[in-house]
Specification:
Blueprint lengths: L2 E6 L1 H8 L14 E6 L30 E2 L4 E5 L4 E5 L3 E3 L9 E6 L7 E6 L9 E3 L7 E3 L1
Antiparallel strand pairs: 1-8, 2-3, 2-7, 4-5, 5-10, 6-9, 7-8
Amino acid sequence: MPEGDGVIYNDFKRALLAGEIDLSGDSTGHQIKVALVTGYTPLIDTDIDWGDVSAAELSGTGYTTGGKVLGSKAVTTDTTNDRGKFDAANVTWTGLNAGTPSHAVMYDDTHATNLLIAYWIVTTPTNGGDYTLQWHTDGIILLT
């Protein structure tokens, strides 16, 4: 999990090109979070900020409202494959018992609008144990 490729929200694409987002957080202190939601139907054209999603956020033992901050964020260049890459450490909730999420949603918690970045389908139920979102070995977002 996450299961399959992520989908990037359209307003994030605009914000990235406009220089409003710093995924590494190095120079601007941007805090990137990932949250679990349930019963959410993503609309990449009209969902823009965390407020468009937050009502569907998971709730239960071991889950903190607003999700988890991504650690070890890195933005790198892959000259072998001619692409840019954003990656971060996997995210783990300890002792999570909160039902079955439908999606993991990534957003910029420090952007003026808490801008949505991307989402992934997640269908593994929580069971009171550790719940880990393991990112793809190629990274979270690739620009080719």
